[in-house]
Structure formats: structure tokens, C-alpha cells
Amino acid sequence: MHFDFTTIPHEQAYKLVVASVVPRPVAWVVSQDREGRINAAPYSFFNAFSDNPVVVGIGCGRRPPGAVKDTLANIEATGQFVVNLVSAANAEQMNVTAIDFPHGVNELDEAGLTTAPSLRVKVPRIAESPVALECEVFQFVPAGKHTIVMGKVIAQYIRDDCVLDAAKFYLDTPKLELVGRMHGRGWYARTTDRVEIPRIPLADWESRKK
């Protein structure tokens, strides 16, 4: 069935896309204003986009009736942020930080979470998260009511027990037990159900066809 996005309301087009482009990784973004007050919020408009430099992007919307969200305001003010990834163990706490608290409320305190110092940026990471990407602003890309924040990753934290071989930069990715965003307002997916499909070299493919 085809849906023509030029003829349907944008709210319905958005609904179709977020119900089908799944699972999406969750960026649990910690930012800080100039006074040092911390904000934390999850974003599922998120992914990695470049290898050199390593660049990740998040899509930040606006609060009704159009005010900039704290995350975007803080990143614009300081040029730094930390993307924490969400494991199954802290998914419920991530959901608490998604509550639309008033400005100035520390979402991490509300969720019973703690912070730990970052290596290269002033913004702290979430201590309970198994992965944290320390970012400096690379570019802001306006996209309608959203702003896509492109961040250059300048350091990364990985929980020790999820590193298989630090010298070779090998991770035990399944042990991270990350979750992804699914459809609707409350559905998520675990990454414990996996299937391996090895890449096929062209030469092997051509030999199969003979």
C-alpha cells in the first residue's frame, strides 16, 4: 500500500515512519548549561553517520508551542554533550528522564541515577550507562521543526567487562544488552535476539553464479 506524503498530514507521515523505521538506537543525551546545571533526555532520532571524523547525530524537536528544548539550548550554549546508550538494566530509568519536567529539574536525580566525569568534555556521563560518547558540536542542520545536532565524538567510555581486548579495540557487544526504540509510545526491543549474516565478497558471489 502506498502513502503519498505530499497529500497526507505531516503528523500521519511521521507516524508511519516511526512505526516502520525500527529498531532505532536511543541516544540518552546529557547536556549542561553555562551555569553547570545538568539535563538528561532520550532521543530515538539518532545514529552514527561518519567514520573520519566519527560523527553522530540526534534530531532535537521543540517544546510546544515552539520553545527550544533544554538539550538543544544547552548544546548551543556550550558546544558539548554526551550520548549515553541505554541497556535493558536502565531502560526504566531512561523512561523517567523522558518525563516533561519543568526547566531546571535534574532528570538524573529524579531517576535515581548518578554521574561520572568525562574524559575530554566538561559534561559528565551517566555512570549507570555501559557506553558514553563524548561529543563536540560538528554542525547544526535545520530540518523543519527539528534541529539535527551533528556531534564529533572525541572520546568514548565502555564499561570494563564489555571490552574483550582493549589493545585490538574488540568489544563484547552482546554483553552491553542495549535496547532500541520500536513503534508507539512505549515499545522497545532488546538486542538479545540476533542473527549473523556474513558479508559476501564479490569473488565468492561470482563463483556461486557459475
TrEMBL record:
InterPro entries attached to this UniProt entry: Flavin_Rdtase-like_dom (IPR002563), Split_barrel_FMN-bd (IPR012349)
Question: Does the record's keyword annotation contain Flavoprotein?
Answer: yes
Query: Needs which cofactor?
Result: FMN
UniProt entry keywords in alphabetical sequence:
Flavoprotein, FMN
Query: Start and end of every Flavin reductase like domain?
Result: 19-172
Family of the protein in this entry? Belongs to the flavoredoxin family.
Write down what this protein is called.
Flavin reductase family protein
Which species is this UniProt entry from? Neoroseomonas terrae
Q: What is the lineage of its organism?
A: Bacteria, Pseudomonadati, Pseudomonadota, Alphaproteobacteria, Acetobacterales
